């Protein structure tokens, strides 16, 4: 039996979604964030030395990191997938395979860096600090966002918007493992200041994702996806 060590409002939600799609039984162990720091609890270090989520245990196996977990699950349990799930791991050497690999790496290698920075610099001015420091912190954070973070996010959003104008899913016309990897980033990008009216393809993609029954089951079990 797989156990998913799931931190609330975190990237591990995509692991739940994939398991629901595959119909693989699992046990969910939910961890709450520290109400002040918003960090994962120390209890996660008993599962994996990094003390972060997502992490799964499957018999004697302990697997951490979103992409590694998703690939592990598809390799071990995805062979019997049917219907639109039959292409979860596209055939090696095909255009779909190359697209899938690209988006698997892009999600964490490029996109999430800017989304995490956006969250951090939005949050800093709201933290406890001497009253005379707050205007300085607010101005500094606004400048970093305007000069560095927002331009890079704008480029990323435009890139995804253009791609999804010619692809139903990130690797092509069928859902693939890359969509599970990209799902959190898409939701975070649309939640953190993006003007949805400028990105109709991205909004439509999210709607297709959210409409899937397995996604809804994962949401019901794991709770909200993106930290506010």
Short description:
This protein has 228 residues and is an alpha+beta fold.
Order of helices and strands, N to C?
EHEEEHHHHHH
- Helix fraction, binned, reads 40-55%
Q: How many strands, which pairing sense, and closed or not: the largest β-sheet?
A: 4 strands, mixed
Rg, Å, rounded? 18 Å
- Secondary structure class reads alpha+beta
Q: Which whole number gives the mean pLDDT?
A: 91
Large-scale geometry: globular
How many H/I helical runs? Answer: 7
User: Are there runs of 5+ residues with pLDDT below 50, and where?
Assistant: none
Distance between the termini: 32 Å
β-strand amount: 5-15%
Total strands: the figure is: 4
Strand order of the largest sheet: 2-1-3-4
Describe what you observe in this structure:
Helix content is 52%, strand content 9%. Strands 2-1-3-4 form a four-stranded mixed beta sheet, covered by helices on one side. The model has no long low-confidence stretch (mean pLDDT 91). The chain is an alpha+beta fold. The longest helix is centred in the middle third of the chain and has 31 residues, at 134-164.
């Amino acid at each position: 039996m797989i156990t998913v060590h799931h931190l609330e409002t975190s990237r591990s939600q995509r692991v739940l979604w994939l398991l629901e799609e595959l119909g693989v039984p699992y046990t969910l162990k939910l961890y709450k964030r520290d109400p002040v720091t918003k960090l994962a609890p120390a209890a996660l270090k008993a599962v994996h030395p990094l003390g972060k989520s997502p992490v799964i245990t499957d018999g004697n196996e302990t697997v951490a990191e979103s992409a590694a977990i998703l690939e592990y699950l598809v390799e071990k349990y995805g062979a019997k997938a049917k219907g639109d799930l039959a292409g979860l791991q596209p055939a090696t050497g095909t255009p779909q395979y190359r697209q899938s690999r690209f988006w698997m790496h892009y999600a964490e290698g490029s996109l999430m860096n800017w989304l995490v920075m956006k969250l951090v610099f939005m949050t800093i001015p709201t933290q406890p600090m001497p009253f005379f420091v707050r205007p300085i912190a607010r101005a500094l954070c606004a400048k970093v966002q305007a000069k560095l973070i927002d331009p890079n996010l704008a480029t990323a959003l435009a890139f995804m918007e253009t791609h999804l104008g010619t692809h139903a899913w990130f690797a092509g016309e069928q859902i693939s493992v890359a969509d599970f990897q990209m799902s959190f980033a898409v939701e975070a990008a649309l939640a953190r200041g993006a003007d949805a009216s400028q990105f109709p393809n991205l909004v439509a993609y999210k709607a297709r994702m959210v409409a899937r029954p397995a996604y809804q089951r994962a949401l019901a079990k794991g709770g909200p996806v993106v930290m506010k």
